[in-house]
Design a protein that fits this description.
single chain; 428 residues; four-stranded parallel sheet; 31% helix; binds flavin-adenine dinucleotide
Amino acid sequence: MAQAHRVLIIGGGFGGLAAAQQLRRAPVEVTLLDRVNYHLFQPLLYQVATGALSPANIAAPLRHVLKNQKNTKVLLGEAVHIDAANRRVILRDGSLDYDTLVVATGASHQYFGHDEWEQYAPGLKTIEDATDMRRRILLAFETAERETDPEKLRALMTFVIVGGGPTGAELAGTLGEIANDTLRHDFRNIDPSKAHIILVEGTDRVLPTYPQVLSAAAKKMLERLGVTVRTGAMVTGISQGVVTIREGERTETIPTRTILWAAGVLASPLGRVLKDEAGANLDRVGRVMVEPDLTIAGHPEIFVIGDLANFSHQTGKPLPGVAQPAIQQGHYVGRAIQARLRGEKIKPFRYFDKGNLATIGRAAAVADMNWIRLSGLPAWLIWIFIHLLYIVQFQNRLLVLVQWAWLYITYDRSARLITGKNPFPLDL
Ligand SMILES: Cc1cc2nc3c(=O)[nH]c(=O)nc-3n(C[C@H](O)[C@H](O)[C@H](O)COP(=O)(O)OP(=O)(O)OC[C@H]3O[C@@H](n4cnc5c(N)ncnc54)[C@H](O)[C@@H]3O)c2cc1C
């Protein structure tokens, strides 16, 4: 019997999982490879970083998600190289052959040539990043409770968030809520509501990709939560306990013990591998310039989707690095593979923009639905509905809903756990 067409998908994020699920009834042999054994709902990572949700609430084991899909196997492994000439993906510990390859390995943050900043200003991409952020935030308050030196105390109670996009705004707003509400009665020596939360953004407004009116609404909501918004401010230095920012001609150093990074995008290193091995063109941040059908020029058997792809054929600009393009591209690729096997042609990919949402805090969000722009409570309700809809497992949907209801009523963040290595002696 002839061997079934082998589709290898690297990455079980939004794009890769959508592609695999689209192929569920196809006469192909699907392998979904990921270096972690779960699909992660990244839009809610900041809620893990701020103690509202536990890691398991926002992650679903890939093996479980695809357990009823008989034509699909899930493998745990890390792809390190692609031998395009021989249609083979090299893993850290083995190799896999394919007939069609779908690369959906996403993107991460970057430090604009200052990788040394990472140790002081962690970014948010993985569950480990989120629990590390949570640890830093909670340890700052714990250490402040024991600190007597006023200068050190001020640095401990100062939180700087770099990047005023959706993730930065979410982190800053939530920190405002933690300081003003959640921790309000928990300490005896410090008043958490006196925390200084500073959001630093290089452009002239927060949420710069949103319409002006929503940026202004977001700024107001952040300020109501006690966040100081510094726009037009560039971070020029980060070292132990200090952030340096430049606003026009003025340079300022801010002593702080907690710096959170929410800026910069850098595509997965497999983009560079595709450049070297398959002649792919990359953009400034390492994304692969794809053809209208999401393949690489000269390699119709290699699709690249999601955050790793630069698809500029629709508007002349790359699609935004958010979940919707990745999901829609995943579905498209699943359909394209089946159409090809039937010998049919498929139309170029078209993105249907359903709108953008960002949340600032309790009953505070902005929604740009293209036909209507909303802020405050209505936007927040839409945000809740959409996020619950897209969380992969029903069980997680239910758990998250219960946690949110509890948080709404009590302001309590029950996942406020300091985990990881022994923190003693506290850095007083
Ligand atoms: C903190 C944060 C908040 C966000 N908030 C929102 C939001 O509110 N709304 C929204 O729409 N979007 C949001 N996004 C963006 C959204 O999550 C991404 O656009 C989306 O995840 C991209 O999907 P993807 O499939 O391209 O990559 P990902 O979902 O990142 O998946 C990539 C997968 O590839 C795996 N992988 C990577 N390299 C390898 C390798 N070498 N070998 C094997 N496996 C590998 C990874 O483990 C991962 O599972 C947010 C992102 C972050 C980080």
